[in-house]
Design a protein that fits this description.
Strand order of the largest sheet of chain A: 3-2-4-6-5
Largest interface: A-B, 55 and 57 residues
Order of helices and strands of chain A: EHEEHEEEHHEEEEHHHHH
Strand content of chain B: 15-25%
Helix content of chain B: 25-40%
Distance between the termini of chain B: 19 Å
Helix content of chain A: 40-55%
Number of strands of chain A: 10
Strand order of the largest sheet of chain B: 1-3-4
Oligomer: heterodimer
Shape of chain A: globular
Number of helices of chain B: 2
Shape of chain B: globular
Radius of gyration of chain B: 14 Å
Structural class of chain B: alpha+beta
Radius of gyration of chain A: 22 Å
Largest sheet of chain B: 3 strands, antiparallel
Order of helices and strands of chain B: EEHEEH
Number of strands of chain B: 4
Number of helices of chain A: 9
């Protein structure tokens, strides 16, 4: 018998009915919370017939739906999500570093969107944040599945735990925000914009949390999850796309920093993680000029005005218009429109 | 294998080819056990309906050829059956070792 593993093929994405799925999820969560509450009430009643047990541990509960609460599940290295609920909103630390770190980082991300951009969680309606850690065995990935986030432990050699990076957490949560705003198709230029918005807010929120500004930030994505084999490398550089890594395992970072090097092949859903380097660089240039918080305001305003099939030229027009609108309201400084236009020209846009 | 949060191996997918006839008996038994438990030997080829279209998932393509025929399968992190995961894990580790020159 011969067994071989072939090259990855390009597979076009499906467009799913996110609104319906969101509704189902909310219903599922409501039922789950009700069942849990019923059990706790029964337990309490049972205890009342005996002596009180002041030292009984507090049950872990999912937060009520629509409260932007965090719910962390330990997947116990199974290839499944929501295996065991281990920490709900307001619960004390568990002692599991991944559980506690993802709880904190999801909180930082949620609080950034609320306090700086006035967005109430992923859907702006207080959607609860469902976080799965210890997914699979040596799983070297993190993803947003349309309803919730999943984080692997890494293999400890190439990658460490994906749950212990704010970059990664904010990146994945922002995929959810994008789904409920522009809902950019995960394919070709719209997919590269989708990836870029996640990198932008991954970096912005990291800077916010660490008290950095555009000048002091490293603008690297994924550097915290590199294991001992690749320590010192990163997965992307917003400041200098194409320079994040160069090694025998991963090869050379393929990101272009200008439209002249645009990747037009079929791999990576037609380059969603490759061509994202172009709008990433434009954001970096704007942030260096007007500061990261103001640049983030412009990008977030634009995200709410883009649409699923938007391409790079559409994004330039919308982001420039967002700069104009926010300049008029005084939220960004006069000259921001010109800064944005100049930054996109520097990366070869619009074409 | 390619994709994931890092968009890794996009232009040069992580891949390997294993011929059981070239393995030691113990290694061959280990691999055959993984193939059997994956449930893929009797399954129909699944080339197309494998993509969830979701961000940052890895994409996998797997081909199995044996005396009874050959079939190829495509999955991503959301569509790969749990039973197939140990086999994917084995192949991933092997591919990484080969690329690292180990």
């Amino acid at each position: 018998m011969t067994l071989h593993k072939c090259n990855c093929a390009f597979i076009p994405p499906y467009v799913l009915d996110n609104v319906a799925k969101s509704g189902q999820e909310e219903m599922r969560e409501r039922v789950r919370a009700t069942v849990k509450q019923d059990k706790i009430s029964r337990d309490r009643r049972a205890r009342k017939s005996l002596e009180p047990f002041p030292t009984l541990p507090k049950a872990v509960m999912a937060p009520p739906p629509g409260t932007a609460g965090r719910t962390v599940y330990d997947c116990q290295h199974l290839w499944a999500l929501r295996v065991k609920l281990v920490r709900g909103e307001g619960d004390p630390v568990t002692g599991d570093a991944d559980v506690d770190q993802i709880y904190d980082y999801a909180g930082v991300t949620r609080d950034y969107f609320k306090s700086k951009l006035n967005r109430n969680s992923i859907d702006n309606l207080g959607m609860n944040l469902i976080l799965n850690v210890h997914v699979g065995v040596n799983f070297m990935n993190a993803f947003w599945d349309g309803d919730e986030m999943a984080f692997g432990d890494g293999d400890g050699v190439i990658f460490t735990s994906f749950a212990r990076s704010l970059d990664v957490t904010a990146h994945e949560l922002t995929h959810g925000v994008t789904q409920f705003t522009a809902n950019l198709d995960y394919f070709s230029q719209s997919g590269a914009l989708n990836e870029s918005f996640s990198d932008v807010f991954g970096s912005v929120i990291t800077q916010y949390h660490l008290g950095q500004d555009a000048g002091t930030a490293d603008w690297l994505i994924g550097d915290e999850i590199m294991g001992p084999t690749l320590f010192g490398e990163a997965l992307r550089s917003m400041k200098a796309p194409g320079t994040a890594y160069d090694n025998p395992l991963l090869g050379k970072d393929p990101q272009p920093d200008h439209m002249s090097n645009y990747y037009a092949g079929p791999a990576d859903n037609q380059g969603v993680h490759i061509n994202s380097g172009i709008p990433n660089k434009a954001f970096y240039l704007v942030a260096m000029d007007i500061g990261t918080p103001k640049a983030a305001k412009i990008w977030y305003h634009a995200l709410q005005n883009l649409w699923p099939t938007a391409v790079f030229n559409d994004a330039v027009a919308v982001i420039v218009n967002s700069a104009r609108v926010l300049t008029r309201t005084g939220e960004v400084p006069v000259g921001s429109t010109q800064t944005v236009r100049s930054a996109f020209r520097a990366v070869g846009l619009p074409t | 294998m390619s994709g994931g949060y890092g968009g890794l191996f996009a232009l040069r997918p992580l891949s390997c080819h294993v011929d059981t006839l070239e393995l030691s008996e113990a290694a061959r038994e280990e691999l055959l056990a993984l193939v059997r438990s994956s449930g893929l030997l009797g399954a129909a080829a699944a080339e197309a309906p494998a993509a969830s279209g979701r961000p940052d998932v890895y994409h996998y393509r797997l081909g199995i050829a044996h005396e009874g025929g050959a079939a190829s399968f495509a999955f991503d992190d959301l569509t790969a059956p749990a039973a197939v995961r140990p086999l994917l894990q084995y192949l991933q580790q092997r591919a990484v070792q080969e690329r690292m020159g180990g």
